[in-house]
Amino acid sequence: MRVTYRFTLKDGKLWMSDLVGADGITRPGNVPFNEFRPLLTDAFDLRGAPIVVAFKRDRTTKVNGFTLNGFHERGMTFVRR
Q1: Where are the domains of the chain?
Q2: Which of 18, 32, 35, 50 is least surrounded, with the fewest CB atoms within 10 Å of its CB?
Q3: Which residue would you say has higher pLDDT here, 11 or 1?
Q4: DSSP secondary structure letter of residue 23
């Protein structure tokens, strides 16, 4: 899939800031860049879209990826680079 999701914290809330394709171009409009709402520890749903991300952590508790469940996708795993 070769896509990059970028997240940011703003005012103590999690937001998706960018969705970048393999060609390096940001894709505005594909996903609403809205606030993620907490569901459980390290799991969030995106306000305005049927997307849930669950962050994965390594042994030192550093986030090293996430699993995405969305529109038609289930269990897509992304690794932090």
Answers
A1: 4-79
A2: 50
A3: 11
A4: T
